[in-house]
Amino acid sequence: MTNEKDNEEVINYKERVGNCSVHKSAMTSDTQEKPRSIQNNKEKAGLRDVRAFTFLVLWYIFSAFTLFLNKYILATLKGEPMLLGAMQMVMTTTFGFIQMYLPLGFYTPVDREGKPPNFWRNMVLVGTMRFSTVVLGLVALKFVAVSFTETVKSSAPLFTVFISNVLIGEYTGLYTFLSLIPIMMGLALCSAYELSFNIQGFIAALATNLTECLQNVYSKLLISGEKYRYTPAELQFYTSIASVGVQIPACFIMMDLDKVHSSLDMTMMVFLFMNGIFFHFQSISAYVLMDYISPVTHSVANTVKRAFLIWISVILFGNPVTFLSGLGTVTVTIGVLLYTKAKEHDHTIVAVREKYSRQIDSQEVVIRQM
């Protein structure tokens, strides 16, 4: 009798322990699934989210200020491109450090217990990509016109589709892929004036496109990670440090020190400082936006931004409006509308497939239990 009671108590104890362990594993899986579901909800809302749309507008505004100050510093004040690029990286490092402790509403601070594995490797990789994008862009401008560089960059969404598929396994449906064609053609038409072909410039512009797309997709991988999520300020600060480390020796090799000495006065310093501030907020706004949208959507938004800046320059600087510019703008607008509809259609197809797959899995479980 005593043995039977002991056996019953042992069995009951095992069942309680088993139930606790199942409950604990379920809680663990729920905890792991929660950030993933939040991230999926963010990306499903996309630019319909008020916060995401706000940062899209801020990104466009800061980009416009940065671009026009670049033009003023290089064309009017005869500044040195390498000094301009170095100042931008120094300012993003400085303000990135400040924003790690004062987010200013850009992101929610996160308490860290040490750094994740391969932290510095990731930072050096992204920092090197940032530096390479800047330098290759300057090399491209040395050999070809701005319009030619922008035309080559119009292929960025296509690069992003393939890179995001390889690095993060993002699925791009057929309709979404086809909708990218009018967007890319539209920007090419907007910038298709005074084209000058040069093989060195073409290779540099193509390499700029590749490094920029790689940087964006890899940054998305870091900022939306499942185990460890980098904040926008962390990416801004640490990648800028890495970029500055790579840029210092390059500046001594490539910079025209005589030109820098002759052009560096108080006016130049003020405009370099202002340009660096705008460049910082342009970069961190882009990082914040990455958390809400996919790399392909980010690339499309970047393409639309370029077309928008072309028209802003037409209005402010009185650049001539050509038939191709108007046709390109209309084509980009139609392409964006098609992209939005295609994205919704592809999301619906993926949701139906996932629902059907879950139903099959549940049926298989029931069959096994029977």
TrEMBL record:
GO terms for cellular component: membrane. It is a multi-pass membrane protein. Its main location: membrane. It is found in: Membrane. Residues 54-339 form the Sugar phosphate transporter domain. InterPro entries: EmrE-like (IPR037185), Sugar_P_trans_dom (IPR004853), TPT_transporter (IPR050186). This is Sugar phosphate transporter domain-containing protein.
